[in-house]
Amino acid sequence: MNEELVRLQKAIANAGVASRRHAEELIATGHVEVNGQVVTEMGVKVTSRDEVLVDGVPLTKPISRHYLFYKPRGVITAVTDDKKRKVVTDYFEEVPERLYPVGRLDYDTSGLLIMTNDGEFANQLMHPKFKIEKHYIAKVQGIPTRLALDPLRKGMKIDGKKLAPARFNIISSDKAKKTAIVELTIHQGVNHQVKNMLKAVGFPVIKLSRPQYGPLTLDGLQPGDYRPLKPREVDALRKLAKGEDLR
């Protein structure tokens, strides 16, 4: 029986060495060898019989690890930062596996972030065709009405990119301070999406958090805390990534 051929960058990501995008960078910069030869092209495919080395270390399929992390504000969603700012992996120094974040939250945004060493799982969750809902709570400047926020519900076009419709709810308003709290639910993962959408309708974000991702919440956690995902939670996320109904 012929073994499955997979793209080299996918094999590296599946082994938990790096995200697929970072794997492509490692290949392009000469850090990867296949059967004793340095490979710098993206089109190469491999099977489990091929010897793949990243910086001289062979690929092995690790046990998949998934964590729910309460990212604080003032932390970079990355594994390293050239400006030496705090990054999300700094909170996982006691975890032996090499973890990386699924998607991202802005430096000044707090909330729920999934950390994993499983590249295939991460790619499933981040694929644009899947519609895992992400819930945000935004403190905005100004007092919006439902009519003013209606373009969010209809879908918007910002910087030439069409954004899918979002659901929203005005939780509260402070007329004295001229601020309001708005809940927003989206399923895309465009950079700065929530901030850009609210700014476009005239209510710039002052503070932003993500308390829920799909069925997962931050219940019981404080900023900087994390916990392993339960098997049923991982299963639920995989089903959502495949477009299955959890009911």
TrEMBL record:
GO biological process, one term: enzyme-directed rRNA pseudouridine synthesis
Keyword annotations of the record: Isomerase, RNA-binding
Domain RNA-binding S4: 6-69
Enzyme Commission number(s): 5.4.99.-
PROSITE patterns for this protein: PSI_RSU, S4
GO MF annotation, one: rRNA pseudouridine synthase activity
Domain of life of the source: Bacteria
PANTHER family assigned: PSEUDOURIDINE SYNTHASE FAMILY PROTEIN-RELATED, RNA-BINDING S4 DOMAIN-CONTAINING PROTEIN
Family that this chain belongs to: Belongs to the pseudouridine synthase RsuA family.
Official protein name in the record: Pseudouridine synthase
Taxon lineage: Bacteria, Bacillati, Bacillota, Bacilli, Lactobacillales
